[in-house]
Each structure stands twice: as structure tokens, then as C-alpha cells.
Amino acid sequence: MAYHGLAGRIVEAIDPHTEGDPVAVLGQTLVLFGSVIGPEPHAMVGATRHGTNTNVMVVGDTAKARKGDSFSPVRRIFELADPDYCARRIHSGFGSGEGVIWAVRDPTTRLEPVREGGRVTRYETVVADEGENDKRLLVVEPELARILRVAGRQGSILSMIMRDAWDGGDLAVITKGTHLRATGAHVSTVGHITADELRRELSDSEAANGFMNRWLVMVARRSKLLPEPEPFEGRPVQLVADELRNRIAFARAQGRIERSQPARELWGAIYADLSRAHPGLVGAMLARAEAHVLRLAILYALLDRSVVVEPVHLQAAVEVWGYAERSVRFLFGEATGNPLADRILRALGQADELTRTEIRDLLGRHASEPQVDVALGVLLEAGLARVEPRATGGRPVEVWQRA
Fold first, then answer.
1. Mean confidence (pLDDT) of the chain
2. Could you report how far apart the first and last alpha carbons of the chain are, in Å?
3. Using CA atoms, how far apart are residues 97 and 252, in angstroms rounded to an integer?
4. Half-sphere exposure at residue 41, Cβ-oriented, CA atoms within 13 angstroms
5. What is the pTM (predicted TM-score) of this model?
6. What is d(CA 97, CA 137) in angstroms, rounded to the nearest whole number?
7. Are 212 and 55 within 8 A, CB to CB?
8. What distance separates the 2 farthest-apart alpha carbons in the chain?
9. Which residue of 90, 257, 298, 348 sits 20 to 30 Å from the alpha carbon of 42, by its own alpha carbon?
10. Is 235 helix (H, G, I), strand (E, B) or coil?
11. What is each CA distance from 307 to 30, 42, 43, 170, 247, in whole angstroms?
């Protein structure tokens, strides 16, 4: 179901030419389509506007997962369909939030004095910078670990800007020496990273502040061995690119997208499951399930030249989200997002039980009593550990075990 419609046909056309995982090809196809069609197609959820911009994080289980091989043919299809977009609006190498804003910045003006007879008689407004009229931007970062390191630095605004960009709001940074603004920005991101890099570079704050739950996380593996892949060209490639060009033109002409009545009924049936809370780090990373499914369903509808989301589009979106959810669970399992709690949990997995004193000894007495209390509370709340008082010859002791 995830390979429904034109998205699936693009994956089918690409698959014989790459060792990249088809699911990575699919995810990046959807993100590029959402980027190239621009900010006009959207859905409203109450007062919140959801555009078609989104982010995909392709996570290779090893350095040989062929993540780049999954992107190159997708870009080639879009180059054939819209060469101007690919030449001007795909960028990489952003090292700051200011850099993202600059790529979609508004024009700026300044007052210039007008002199007559050597005297300033009036001031007139002149354009200091014409800005960027095209607010579409696709950030492609083949070394996403670098971006995570930058986002985690003290004083960096990159995480904040990327969160605001996904939300579709206006972007701005105003400091004593900098005044940058971008209104109506339509920013999407494709990032590649290995599983080990993601686990190592992801900070607690990035998981907790909503940066990570604005990504579709897709674990990718090498799909096959192709010692000599055929050139990605010819009539089948051109035909699917021509079809894509047609769908891009259709989508750009659309505005507000709504669900058909059958899709509304299906949405009502699956909404509770999408909205359920998950404990720990996994829960923090899956907190925007409803929004992701909504945006993906719009993309599938527009790829079908449909002005409304039908059940088939919603089902395809749910399939994609289901894979993203399974990817997060595979990568982070029972991680809580609290490093101290995760360390205690690993220790409990290696021992039948531990007393609180043994836990403190395990931590080398480097953690304070309140920090240990918080960590143990996290494990209890997540249902990952249980505690029972045990009688001794004197004062009862707390005995902790994995749940």
C-alpha cells in the first residue's frame, strides 16, 4: 500500500539501477515532491496550517547501507521533471540556522539620504537586498551527524529554525548584529546518517524539544548487489519523469486539501491509535504521528491528481508512518531519553536485582541522590522497572528489578 500510485512507479523505475533500499527511495521521493510543489497545497487542523514540506532521515544500519545511492536516482527523476527547481532550490552544507533563513530570506530595505546642494533634504527607501522570491528549499545533508552536532552546541539556533521551518511558520533571527527574516518559507530536509552516529550524536534536548519528532525516520539497508548497474536513462525513466512533471503542475495549482467523507470516517477510526502516547525516548520521537500521516496523505492524493484525500491515500500514509515507527523502535528500543535511567536499565538487565545502594555504587557515586531518584522514577513511569521493599534485620531496603 505504501507504494501506491506514482510514488510506487518511481520506486519501480529506480529499483533495478540502485543498491539503495526501496523504502529510502520512497521516503525521499515523497519529500522531494512535497518540496517541489511549494507552499500552496495545505490542510487545516483547527487554526493550524499543515503544508506539504516534511523531513526524512535515512538511517543506515552500517556505513554500506547505500543511503546516497537511494537519493541520486530520485534527484535525477526530479531533474528531468523540473530542472530549474533542482538547479536552484536544492542545497546542502548548512551549518547554522542563519544559513537556512538566508536561503529563503525576505527582501530588506534601508533609508538613503538624498542630498541637494550639499544638504540632506529627505530620505528615500531603497532595496538593500532583493531577498529570495522562491521560498522552496530542500536541504540535503549526506552527513546528518554534523548537523546534529551543530544543533547541540551552546548558542546554536539551528534546531529552533528547523523546528519552525517544519511547522511552516515564519523564520527569523534578530540580534544586535543580525536581522534576518523569512516569511512563507517552505523548507524540507533529506538527511543521511548511520545508526551508530544517530545514537551517539542525538542529545537529550534534541529529543525532548521536538526536533526529532519532525522527522520521518527510515532504517535503510542495502537491497541487493549490483556490481555493474545499468545507466539510469532511457524511455522508462523519461516516461515516469513526464508523469511526475504533470503531477507537479497539478499540485502547484491546488490550495486547501480536505478528506472525502469515506476518508473522514477512516481517519476517525485510526485517530486514537495515532494519538496514543508512548513512553520514553520512543514516545518523544513519535509524538507527531497524526501530523505526519496528514501530510503524507496529502502528498499521495496530489500524486494521484486528486483534490481530496481518499481512503487509499490515507492507508498509504499510515503504511509509511508504520515503517517510520518501527524504525524508531528498532533504533532506540527501550531507551528513555534519560542517560542515567538507560544506564540503570542496562545494569538491571544484567543482574537479577539491584538494591538502591548497589545502583549508587554502580554509578560510581557521581550521580546525586535527586538525579538517581529522577532516573528511577523515569523507569517506573515507563513500566520498565519495578521496586519492592525487602525486610532485613534492620531498615528495609529497596530492591529494583526489570519489569
1. 90
2. 36
3. 27
4. 33
5. 0.87
6. 13
7. no
8. 101
9. 90
10. helix
11. 17, 11, 11, 26, 12
119 to 43, 110, 126, 292: CA distances (angstroms): 55, 19, 19, 60
Q: At 362, which helix (H) or strand (E)?
A: helix 356-362
> Phi first, then psi: what are they for 98, rounded to 5°?
-60, -35
pLDDT value for 173: 85
CA quadruple 156, 160, 166, 170: dihedral sign: negative
pLDDT digits (tens, 9 = 90+) for 31-67: 999 999 999 999 999 999 999 999 999 999 776 767 7
Residue with cell 546534529: 148
pLDDT in tens, 268-325: 999 999 999 887 788 889 999 999 999 999 999 999 999 999 999 999 999 999 999 9
> Is 257:302 a contact under the CB 8 Å cutoff?
yes
Compute the distance between CA of residue 85 and CA of residue 166 in angstroms, rounded to an integer.
Answer: 19
Confidence class of residue 205 from pLDDT cuts 50, 70 and 90? Answer: low
CA 331/CA 60 separation, integer angstroms: 10
Residues 6+ apart with CB under 8 A from 106: 131, 181, 182, 183
pLDDT tops 60 at residue 371 = yes
